[in-house]
Amino acid sequence: MEQFDYVVLGASHAALEALRAIRAHDSDGSIAVLDREARLPVSPTVLPYVVSGKRPEDRIALRERGWFDDLRVDYRQQAHAAALDSAHSRLRLADGSEIGYGKLLLATGAAPAVPPIAGLSDVRFHVLRTLDDALALREAGRSAGRAVVLGAGLVGMHAAENLARAGARVTIIEMRDQVLPGYFDATAAARIQAAFHDNGVEVLTGRRVERVAPRAGGCTVQLDGGDPCDADLLLVAAGVRPEVSYLAGSGVAVERGVVVDAFMRSTAANVWAAGDVVQTPSFFGDATPAGGILPDAVEQGRTAGMSMAGDPGVQAYPGGVSLNTYGFFGRRALSVGRDAPQQGGADWEVLVRGGEGSDAYLKIVLRDGRLQGVFGVDVLFDPGIMWELILRRVELGARAKALLEDPQDAARALMSGLWR
Amino acid sequence: MSATPTIAFDAARCDGCGHCMNACVSAKSSDAHRAQPRIQILRDDESGRWGIAQCRQCGDPRCASVCPAAALEKGDDGIVAWDGERCVNCLICTAGCTFGGIAFSAAEGHVVKCDQCEGAPQCVAACTRGALRYVTTANLYNRWGDLEDLFVPGLGGCQGCNTELIMRHTLRRVGSNTVLATPPGCIPGMGSVGYNGMLGCKVPVFHPLLTNTASMLTGIRRQYKRKGRNVTALALAGDGGAGDVGFQSLSGAAERGEQILFICVDNEGYMNTGAQRSGSTTYGAWTATTPIGESARGKTQDAKNLPLLMMWHGCEYVATASTAFMEDFYAKLEAALDASQRGFAYLHLYSPCTSGWRFPSASNIEVARKAVETNFAVLWEYRRDQGLKLSRDIEDPAPVTEYLKLLGKFRHLDATQIAHIERHVAEQAQVLRELARMHPREGRQVVGHQSDLMAVDLDQ
């Protein structure tokens, strides 16, 4: 049986950052990376740009093979973990071989969630998570007259825009009452939705799909209490679920994802986890959605890697903060942190500028004078600085007003003074 | 990964004139577009201070880590470079940066960031107030990093001591063709001469007596020369081994012009034997032998100025240096090494002692910097053929108390003692100022009648 000091499952953002962190502290330990894919790692985030044709598929690899070689990492493609035996510190792969590890990182990410819709398994539908998905969607999009996108999250919205640009008539169907739920409030979402409407994309919110049925060259989508709508192309973008199929009986606790502590340790000895496979605790310690955020996956990967290598500089992962940069039809929407709850007490303060018809929309959420969230459409600011201000629980005091007026400059000036 | 030159910002010197931003716009604009400045100076009205948003060229750039398109990469030149061919304009890099160092430019249609103008940052050139400085020390570290470290990996110094830095960097540059003398003191205590019969470094090293370092090196250097081999004779000594107990042999070797590079690491006392006073200990300072009690208030004499004493020997080269100013130190080490091939070279390094001076181990470099900025330790160099030159401006020093208050050994000082130290610092600065103005070489032109023969037979 092969044996490595470190084995990393997955080769996306969390895994790559963990590799760097491990090597920064342990220059000698043997490392193997097992990637399911048959190609160099690609970020799911660039896939919409492959679909649109903006980026050729051979220029999007996150790392070249030489990067792994330089780090002296044994990088293996098409290596699929089938089962984990954490009691004996070994993995069984899909080809039947076994690999022993000293320390293991689970960074297998997530796979598209397929909602329980009647008839969905009988029709051909697309998802968008891997490069193969993107290439298939790009191909189908070229000839699709009519496309239906299920889900108005970031993936669905991005893909819908690209399909519309490719010439398809696109309908987005979202269960909840607005687009991009969880990222933006209703006012911001309405601005974004209007842009889609202006560009000929139909957006149906608060609607459920009752069933889908095959039709020549595509499918028919039956909405609750409405006319059926025909689609040459059906894209299911209803979120993701952690890729944990190989963890059954492994001793690694899984809830909405792999359960981890502040150093990304799972419940099994010598097993860490990072990225989309993890059940990310919220920084705010509440039910605010966390996880599935690229910069967060990187933080988790670094924390896990440092912890695995025994780097004394490791710091506890502070918890996930929702963070998105979203471009649509040449415009930009940014969101960092959490919105105020419906029944927030007197400790909450919400500052807003720009209602309907104005040039821009900006919302700043404070609790006890500390930044909780910033949400902007057609307003620029530095999400990284806002993130840091939230993590540091910086008291804004009288600066809140300046922040609302000019979030970029005011936050930069404040942050600059906080750096030594 | 290499270290990177930095554009340093001093908020206290900035008046928000904006010349840096204008210079950046000019440098980065083309006929097609007017660029967004890659540096931004902003005022925080609450604190009344100016702030900066600019790429720090992080060693571990998070903008690059989070980029899903591998469009950002830190290059061998240290610059985090942006690749427009790969960028997909997703702006996730702006979520990765906490400095506002990469931002979307509407005019240019993509994110923009500072590239330090290929080593000649225009913003720095435009700053007339010294608020922006282009710090290139990193280049030196990179160069030094390529040189072989000739000390053992582990040296047993006190936490936060800068002597390990001094030792390793010195020997890296001086190189393996060296015989090293380390008389009793912190340096052999840290392991330069080794343990259990094993050497502490990769060059021949010996442990002379406190008194005879320069004499032994003289003999070694001369013997090698006689054998036809040109080695560098290097001493790494403390202030006691150089200026007190060891002064006789040091003075003799300097006066004879022996080809030696003598480095004094001055921690102002006999620190490895329990922090006793030395001739270099500051007036008023606590040491084990100048205690604080009902009547005793620390040392009652001023420190002697050892580097100036060495200058009056007419050495080939004499300089003072500080680990808070590494570029200056490197340049002086270079000059001293060169001079030691012709005659005696003496380098005096200030070495704040974390344990003996009583300050937190993390603040060594800060203490060293403050010593220089207050004129407590003035940086200068002397070349026999050029006289003395100040290495940095001493006209507008910080108050000496800013230095004194950093150190536990001065905690007990009363107003009279502080005034005494302030006066002494000012006097020393004045002496150096005067010396720097003098032009002894002009004395070469003999005034009056030149004598052609000795008129008197002195031997009679």
From TrEMBL, chain A:
Gene3D superfamilies: FAD/NAD(P)-binding domain (3.50.50.60). InterPro entries: FAD-bd_OxRdtase, FAD/NAD-bd_sf, FAD/NAD-binding_dom, PadH. It holds the Pfam family Pyr_redox_2. Residues 4-283 form the FAD/NAD(P)-binding domain. Keywords: FAD, Flavoprotein. Its cofactor is FAD. The keyword Endoplasmic reticulum does not apply. PANTHER family: NITRITE REDUCTASE [NAD(P)H], PYRIDINE NUCLEOTIDE-DISULFIDE OXIDOREDUCTASE DOMAIN-CONTAINING. Belongs to the FAD-dependent oxidoreductase family. This is NAD(P)-binding protein. It comes from Aromatoleum toluolicum.
UniProtKB/TrEMBL annotation, chain B:
Keywords: Oxidoreductase. Pfam families: Fer4_11, TPP_enzyme_C. Gene3D superfamilies: 3.30.70.20, 3.40.50.970. CDD domains: DMSOR_beta_like (cd10550). InterPro entries: 4Fe4S_Fe-S-bd, PadI, PorB-like, THDP-binding, TPP_enzyme_TPP-bd. Residues 5-35, 46-77, 78-107 form the 4Fe-4S ferredoxin-type domain. It comes from Aromatoleum toluolicum. PROSITE patterns: 4FE4S_FER_2. It comes from the Bacteria. This is Phenylglyoxylate dehydrogenase.
